[in-house]
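Sequence only, no structure available. Ideas?
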Amino acid sequence: GTTAYISIKLGEHQREEAEKALGNGFIIATFMALVLMVLGLIFAPHLLKLFGGNEETIPYGAQYINIFLVGTLFNVLGFCFTSIMRADGSPKMSSVCMVIGCVLNIILDYVFVFVIQMGIEGAALATIISQAVPAIIGLWHFTKGKSGLKLRKHYFKCDLSVIKNIVAIGMAPATMQMAISLVQVVMNNVLNRTGGQVAVAAMGVISAVTMLVLMPIFG
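Reply:
I predicted one. Tokens follow.
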């Protein structure tokens, strides 16, 4: 929602309004990330069960999610910054951030899981670090870097008219994401009841392979 609203304002040559949207988007993202982190940590066992976990797999899932959720702020800000970079006219920087995060995740997974032998907790830690790097680069880009828009302190206050527009634009893709999550919940529970954890794992592999085909099409 913030990205689209910024694009609109830049198209109207209203740079000040675009920076105001950047500041408000940053505040919204930070607030939502902290809320999601707290609620996620509180209800982690229930979430794992909701997504198809059982007595055998929930302990492993808990090891991962309890560490992963601590990095929610990095996850959300990294996603937001790389998206807004494209509206700001820096698609190459956005791509670099995402590639660095992906490559770093692969390397750290190997180091933490196989070399240091931290297991599932190592995989979660690797994910947090790989998400933190793009978030930090994004923060630098919009404060000290060569971005056209800047994060300015005097825009770190909620403007209801700006927030209303951001939410209105972002509601449709947010609803789609929630629908995808709901489908995943239903699918995992059905698979768990009919084929057990082997079926859930198999579907996870199929989904990953499918994305290799779909992502270039989306691109």
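The two ends are 19 Å apart (CA to CA).
Hope that gets you unstuck.
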